[in-house]
Write a structure and sequence with these properties.
single chain
Length: 219
Amino acid sequence: MKLTERLYKSVEDIWMGYLDQPFVKELAEGTLDVEKFRFYMIQDYRYLLQYAKVFAFGVIKTEDLELMRRFAGMVHDVLDGEMNVHKTYMARLGITEEEVAKTPSALTNQSYTSYMLDVANKGGPLEILMAVLACAWSYQVIGEHHVKVPGAVEHPLYGEWVQGYSSKEYADSTKEIIDCVDALGENITPEQEAYLTDIFVKCSRYEKLFWDMAYAMEM
C-alpha cells in the first residue's frame, strides 16, 4: 500500500464529514447565501497567497533539479491557475484587490496558514508536501462529489467552482503532489510516517474549521 493510501485512511472520516458541512453541502445544492460565499472567496484568496509560499519552500529546500522544477510548477499552478478562478469570482462579486488587501485574515485562516508555513520552515520536501496535501486533495474529493449533484454544475454562480475542482486539470495538479509524496515517502521509517500522518490529520481538521469559519463568517 502506498503512503498516500495509508494517509487517506487516516482522514477518510474527516473528509466524508466535509460533505455534510453546511457551507459545502449548500454550495452543491445551490442554496448557499451569497454573502457567505463572498466572505469565503476573500478569505480563501488570502489563504492561497500563503499556500503558494509553502510550495516555494520546496524550491529553496531541495538540491534536486527535477524536484525543484516540480515545486516551481506547483507554485505556478496556484498563482496562475487556482487563483484565476478566484479572480473571476471576485470580479463577479464586486471584490476588489484593495478590499482583499484591507481585509484581515480570519483567526482560523491565520492559524492554519501559520501552521503550514511553520511545518515547511522546519521540514524538508516531504513535510512541505504534507502541509498542502490535505487542502489540494480534499478539494478534489469535494469537487468530484459535487459534480454528481443534480444541477450543481449548471448553477449560475457556484457551477464554475464545481467545474474547477472536478476538472481534469485540477485532478492532474493534485496527482502531481500525490505522486511526489509517494516517491519521496517510499522508504521512510515508521517514526517519520507517524509525524507525517500527524501533519496530514491536523491540516484536515483545519480544513473543517475553515469551512465552519466561512459559513459562520467568523473573523
